[in-house]
Amino acid sequence: MRDVENATVEVARPDDFDEFWAAGLADCATYPLDPVLTEMPTLSTPLVVVYDVSYVSFGGLRVSGWYAVPRGGEAPYPGLVTIPGYISEPTIPKEWAELGYAALAVAPRGKLRSNAVFNPGYPGLLTNNIVDHNTYGYRGFYLDVVRAVDVLLERPEVDSSRIGLAGSSQGGGLGISTAALRPDVIKAVACGAPYLCGIMTAPTLTRSYPYEEINEYLRLHPKDVDRVRETVAYYDGLNFAPAVKAPTLIYLGLEDDVCPPETGFALHRVLTCPKTLRTYENCAHHAGLPGVMRVVEDFLADHLKPVI
Amino acid sequence: MDFLEYWNAVDDELAAIPARPVLDLVPQRTDSAATTYAVRITSAGPYRVFGSLSIPVGDGPFPALLQVPRYGSVNNMAHPNDRSRYVVLTLMHRGQRLADEFFRAAYPGLLTLGIDDPSTYIYRGIAADCLRAAEFLLGLREVDPARVAVVGNELAILTAARRPAISAVRVSDLVLYRAMEARLWSSHYPLEELNDHLRSGSSAEVIGRTLSYFDPIRHAPAVTARTLVGVEDPGWYVPLVDALPAGEAYQVTHLDGTDADFYDAWLAGQVGVPAMSKFVR
Questions:
Q1: Is residue A9 one of the residues assigned to a domain?
Q2: Which is nearest to B33 in space by CA: B62, B51, B54, B60?
Q3: What is the pLDDT of residues B120-179, one digit of tens each?
Q4: Position A45 in a domain
Q5: Which residue of B has its CA nearest to A204?
Q6: Does pLDDT of A157 surpass 90?
Q7: Could you confirm whether A169 is annotated as catalytic?
């Protein structure tokens, strides 16, 4: 039987890890954020106003999202960035707005609404330029989520002292990287079944996608294994985790075949922020859904204080 | 046009269009257990759709599995466990990734595209894609035609209803079952797309009529295959299970590891292969 809680998951931290990401953030800062919001009356409801939103991110690429704001309650609202899973398109976050959040569902580059320039396809994103950390497909993708936080910071209806992140799988993994890259802004992270943690260990523990993409890549390019390991170390949540300051909720399925629970436990171990771990026996990648959503909602409400 | 006329017209359209399959080996997805191909076939329209086809290594014929598309832009490739036991065809319908050269599905948006008229509703073409995929799979010499299963959402029921050679069906996460009622329960997508569309000026009567052609309960009586329906609220699904001549319900536990293992074992039992868990214990 696997000892998922105590298994060793190690990732070497590149010497220039901080400089690498500082350079990425500096690149973003050279472009005006230039957010464009268009109200969408037919997508709005009596409870929620919906906007189509876009903004400029890493490399000058324009990225899309959906933004939903409560009609009720009193601004400023807490802000929440919701981050999509690997194969998911972001849905309009009306349910979060109904709970009192100004919620931005980001579609990072490569997602349908943001793939005019960069479109690695699915499967494909995980291994796009995976031999070169400077051009790895995920570089801009990670930074697109950071820039979504910046959009919320510019919104007058958002309380900039109450901004959180929520997502599961890829959304959980990028919650960690984003909280690490905006440590003084993010005040809460809800992180389910985190992907992109222990990236080189995970494919040895599962044959499920998307990690199976790495096994497939190495089947064709076995000599690239060291370069792949070197690249993904820059993107591994375990290397971001120590920089996270915000209270973080991690929830795991103990039989998760997609993101092996060993990697989630490893993430929890290296986080130094206030942290809560919920584990669910006999659960796989849903990691306790749907019941865990109440836990997520309560956690975010405790820290971000929505008023509706 | 009545229900049978509508669907007979889809079959007639497919019958008039050759599938013209092209298979390309996918080396990175080929190993000692299975060989994988990228498949392109012509469906109604005509429209070229994509599939990932894997064939186990060894002497066939093998049981076969058609994975109909989920609601979303991407379908995962078949798990290696499945590729080792079945001939697996994972279909990307028109508009999904890998089948989006001429039409890109929008999310949200796909669920209501052309919905004001049954003849223009996008799901007419999507259903045709599934039927064409089933025909292709059933025609492969590596496939045992007596052991062909289809898994997924309501498109699996629709496919089995129209292609009676299919012997087992497993469905869960239904979107189009009683959709006009279910849309009222929350603002969650994809059913919220129906509410969005109504806000844009359509009428419930109009879209309800279109959706009635696709509700699995109307196709269920024609399904001869053994059918497992994963249900969250048994009462909600009673009419569907009762309408299936060989239907049975599985009460979803929301322990999705447990549920996945049950689903896998049920299907394996139907077609005579060993059960396999995706979670290696």
A1: no
A2: B54
A3: 999 999 999 999 999 999 999 999 999 999 999 999 999 999 999 999 999 999 999 999
A4: yes
A5: B280
A6: yes
A7: yes
Q: Is A138 annotated as a binding residue?
A: no
Confidence of residue A308 (pLDDT cuts 50, 70, 90): confident
Tell me the one-letter amino acid at A213.
Answer: E
* Residue B32 touches chain A, beta carbons under 8 Å: no
Predicted pLDDT at A307: 86
Q: What is the pLDDT of residue B135?
A: 98
Catalytic-role residue among A168, A177, A256, A286: A256
Model pLDDT, residue B204: 98
Three-state SS at B43: strand
Question: What is the bridge-based pairing of β-strands B168-171 and B226-231?
Answer: parallel
Yes or no: say if A283 and A254 are a contact pair by the CB < 8 Å rule.
yes
- Is A54 designated active site? no
* Chain A residues closer than 8 Å to B280 by CB: 2, 205-206, 257
Instruction: Specify the 3-state DSSP secondary structure of A99.
Output: coil
Q: Does B189 touch chain A (CB under 8 A)?
A: yes
Tell whether A115 is within 8 A of chain B (Cβ).
no
SS3 A94: helix
> Residue B70 phi/psi, 5° resolution?
-80, 175
- In the stretch 107-126 of chain B, residues with CB closer than 8 A to chain A read 107-108
Do strands A275-280 and B22-25 pair parallel, antiparallel, or not at all (unpaired)? unpaired
- Residue B114 is encoded by which pair of tokens? 């052309």
Pick the CATH number of B3-270 from 3.40.605.10, 3.40.50.1820, 3.90.180.10, 1.10.260.40: 3.40.50.1820
Please check the confidence at residue A39 and state whether its pLDDT lies above 80.
Answer: yes
Contact (CB, 8 A) for B52 and B36: yes
Query: For residue B229, what are its two tokens?
Result: 């329906």
**What 3-state DSSP class applies to B171?**
strand
| Catalytic (active site) residue A27 | no
- Asked whether the beta carbons of B250 and B228 are under 8 A apart, the reply is yes
- Count CA within 13 A, CB hemisphere, residue A245: 8
Give the domain range for residue A243: 17-301
Q: How far is A180 from chain B (nearest CA, A)?
A: 29
- In this structure, is residue A167 part of a structural domain? yes
CATH no. for residue A247? Answer: 3.40.50.1820
Among B135, B152, B138, B136, smallest CA distance to B96 is for B152
Q: What is the pLDDT of residues B34-87, one digit of tens each?
A: 999 999 999 999 999 999 999 999 999 999 999 999 999 999 999 999 999 999
Compute the nearest-CA separation of B255 from chain A (Å): 5
Per DSSP, helices labelled H in chain A are: 17-29, 94-98, 138-154, 170-181, 202-205, 212-220, 225-233, 237-240, 261-270, 292-304
Q: What is residue B1's predicted lDDT score, i.e. its pLDDT? A: 73
Strand partners for B168: B149, B226
Please check whether residue A58 lies inside any domain of the structure. yes
Could you tell me if B148 and B137 are in contact, meaning their C-beta atoms sit under 8 angstroms apart?
Answer: yes
Residue type, B82: D
Contact between residue A247 and residue A188 where contact means Cβ atoms under 8 Å apart: yes
With both helix axes pointing from N to C terminus, report the angle between B154-162 and B122-138 in degrees, rounded to the nearest 10. Answer: 60
pLDDT band at A145 (very low <50, low <70, confident <90, very high): very high
pLDDT tens digits along A225-275? 999 999 999 999 999 999 999 999 999 999 999 999 999 999 999 999 999
